[in-house]
């Protein structure tokens, strides 16, 4: 029981862990150091795991895993959108004042 | 069976997905846009899930999950080390030539 609980907490921390990265991008409008390939691979990996999560819920188990995995998918998807939105931006401190 | 396979492939893609980000950091020596808070939270989340993964293996199941989760833990850990190593670097294109 303890380990399932740790897995659940870990899943929530892992999923919500991307919020500070999103806040940083919104603040700086700079994404130059982020690897778009990495975020696409991570997005693809999580999307494949989402099929398993849905499969588990259809069988009546694993709702928490579906919630945390879906949260990760949404937040990584948001980061990908920001990477394309801001990819031509020079980061704030290099812009002429 | 199919969904377990998709989960496994998803886990490997998710874990190895961080390799392009590591290569980008090694090339540019610039980590300014990466949120160290995010990578700490993601590291913590994966570490908690690692306890569950080890628990599963002790019970004779889930070896693949332990492998992919450990790979994620190592790669995210490496990114954290790089963030501290290069955090004072200006990215290459802003360095005086």
Automatic annotation (TrEMBL), chains A, B:
Its main location: membrane. It is a multi-pass membrane protein. Keywords: Membrane, Transmembrane, Transmembrane helix. Gene3D superfamilies: 1.20.1280.290. Signal peptide: none annotated. It is found in: Membrane. The keyword Cytoplasm does not apply. InterPro entries: PQ-loop_rpt. This is PQ-loop domain-containing transporter. The lineage of its organism: Bacteria, Bacillati, Bacillota, Bacilli, Bacillales.
């Amino acid at each position: 029981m303890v380990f399932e609980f740790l897995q659940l907490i870990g899943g929530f921390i892992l999923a919500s862990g991307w919020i500070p990265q999103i806040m940083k991008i919104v603040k700086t409008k700079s994404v130059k150091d982020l690897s778009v390939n990495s975020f696409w691979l991570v997005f693809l990996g999580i999307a494949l795991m989402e099929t398993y999560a849905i499969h588990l819920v259809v069988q009546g188990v694993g709702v928490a895993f579906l919630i945390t995995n879906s949260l990760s998918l949404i937040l990584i998807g948001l980061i990908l959108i920001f990477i394309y939105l801001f990819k031509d931006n020079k980061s704030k401190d290099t812009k002429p004042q």
